[in-house]
């Protein structure tokens, strides 16, 4: 058996209209999964669905737009997936936000709350909606896209780092709770990846050069390099991995 085969599985991926989420959706579809594309903008979701169906055939993807800050939207996302395909096997909590770049002392209360709500509370909401399906079928893989920021301090994205550290603990706690039902919960902790979300970090030549100099692989990552880790954690290849934070950072944190 191909250890990375996802045939017959249904995967929800939030923030999947671009960047890391889009790369994960494309690779999971390539490995046989039916994927649910979700982000705030319906048109952007539809474009990714068209791309997947053009490559892998009709009926391999659907679009269910959702704003992660809305509990109602997340409930709708899970309900529509179950209505369309009758099951959920993989949940990738990828969508996140970071509306503030600067020292922690300067962050406004509403900015701090938005980061914590969108990066932690929304994951809690969505997992709580999807997990009952997984525990009932006694199989499932939940993947939270965290960050190496959750392992280090920062003078410019401190609140984001705090939220990503909390995601790692969320995965550990839920891995303990859901393990007896054969449902695994893990994090992926990317380093600097060339996405629009991280543009403020890699578009600055000074910051980029500094990061490349201190990275053993001497470059930043690409979204597709995170997708491989997600396929691993979703598939039989990762069947004995739970409660972990898989670091994919070119060696930065070593």
Low-confidence stretches: none
The major pleated sheet works out as:
7 strands, parallel
Structural class: alpha/beta
Helix content: 40-55%
Number of strands: 7
What is the topology, as strand order, of the major beta sheet? 3-2-1-4-5-6-7
Query: What's the order of the H and E elements?
Result: EHEHEHEHEHEHHHE
CATH first level:
Alpha Beta
Count of separate DSSP helical elements: 8
Descriptive report:
- The protein is α/β, with parallel strands linked by helices.
- 46% of the residues lie in helices and 14% in strands.
- It has helices at residues 19-30, 42-56, 71-85, 109-137, 158-178, 199-202, 205-213, 223-234; strands spanning 10-14, 34-38, 61-63, 90-93, 140-145, 183-190, 245-248.
- The protein has a seven-stranded parallel beta sheet with strand order 3-2-1-4-5-6-7, with helices on both faces.
- It is globular, with a radius of gyration of 17 Å.
- The model has no long low-confidence stretch (mean pLDDT 95).
Summarize the structure.
Helices cover 46% and strands 14% of the residues. It has 254 residues and is an alpha/beta fold.
